[in-house]
Amino acid sequence: MILTITAHAALDRVIFIPEFCPTMRMPADHSVDYVGGKGFVVSVALSCLGVRNLAMGILAGENGRRLEFLLRGYGIPYNLTWVEGETRISHVIVETKYHRHSHIMTPSYHVSPEDLQVFLSRYRSQVWEADWVIAGGSLADGIPDSFYAQVTEIAHQAGAQILVDSWDEPFLQSLSARPDILKQNLHEFCSTFELDETSLADPTALLTAVREIRERNSMSAIVITLGPNGVLLVTKEAAWSACCPAQSATSAAGAGDSVSAALVWRLGLGDDWAEALRWCAATGTAGVLTEGTGEVRMDDVLQFLPQADVTFL
């Protein structure tokens, strides 16, 4: 079983417009609410792939109730910790003319030390059932930057492996606990390690930088998602890249989270790194063809799988 952790939930309100025009009236083509928050979105992708999982997270208010309803609609088992306040809304603005999306976030709830201990107690009781944990996203107000290090230590004590997908200080503090896989997108990677993103547009320069940082920080494995340019994976022993033919995106929101879902799923089935990465590329590509955050269609994944190009670097 795969257990996902969402420390900062969101209700994704996806608004489709042709083009964002500042100061102008912009009627939307349509708007739909979807599951938000990295761990929850990973659970959506896993559910679409037919993989058993448990979603754990912190919610509040009416937006939280709406989010719970959406999780139930996917048939995702969950264990939720409720706090005072309101779950944030992530307004995902999809510009259909340019096939791009932006996020506008509303304020969110505060997590007290008592709330956090309730969540961690529930996590400790559930993690023994898990083979893998996937934890990611920003941290809600009140949750310390050491959170991902703490959930990593708890996972390892229970014999589970863990993927952490975050950035900046929470990511850096997780390194002391040695997550089994660390994942970021290119922007998060550059922000965390204070690198010039434009200088890493060259694949050779990017590979060199990732290898140096992985070695310097004693990471077991690091995955960098690159949007339409696919996925880069670097371990102590080797490195691979994988990509599929670029698609005209309906919405790319959550595509990176579907990569996390596919990677852990396939490794759990016994695939080697290269084969798991092939599924990552196919699943991430399939993820841009749906409107829903993190949603994938298995038929699309299987269509892209033979087209996934995995290169040993």
3D architecture notes:
With 313 residues, the protein is α/β, with parallel strands linked by helices. It has one domain (2-21, 29-312): Ribokinase (UDP-N-acetylmuramoyl-L-alanine:D-glutamate ligase). Helices cover 36% and strands 26% of the residues. The chain contains 10 helices and 14 strands. It has helices spanning 38-48, 61-73, 113-126, 147-157, 168-174, 186-192, 203-216, 255-268, 273-287, 298-304, and strands at residues 2-6, 10-17, 30-36, 53-59, 78-82, 88-95, 100-105, 132-136, 161-165, 181-185, 221-225, 231-235, 239-243, 309-312. The strands form 2 sheets. A 10-stranded mixed sheet has the order 5-4-1-8-9-10-11-12-13-14, sandwiched between helices. A 4-stranded mixed sheet has the order 3-2-6-7. Strand 8 (132-136), helix 4 (147-157) and strand 9 form a beta-alpha-beta unit. Helix 1 crosses helix 8 (255-268) and helix 4 (147-157) runs parallel beside helix 5. The longest helix is centred in the C-terminal third of the chain and has 15 residues, at 273-287.
Averaged pLDDT, please?
95
Uncertain segments are none
Report, as a whole number of angstroms, the end-to-end distance: 32 Å
Overall domain count: 1
Computed Rg: 18 Å
Let me know the CATH homologous superfamily: Ribokinase
Topology as a string of helices (H) and strands (E): EEEHEHEEEHEHEHEHHEEEHHHE
Shape: globular
| Strand-pairing-aware structural class | alpha/beta
Helix content: 25-40%
CATH class categorisation: Alpha Beta
Lateral strand order in the biggest sheet? 5-4-1-8-9-10-11-12-13-14
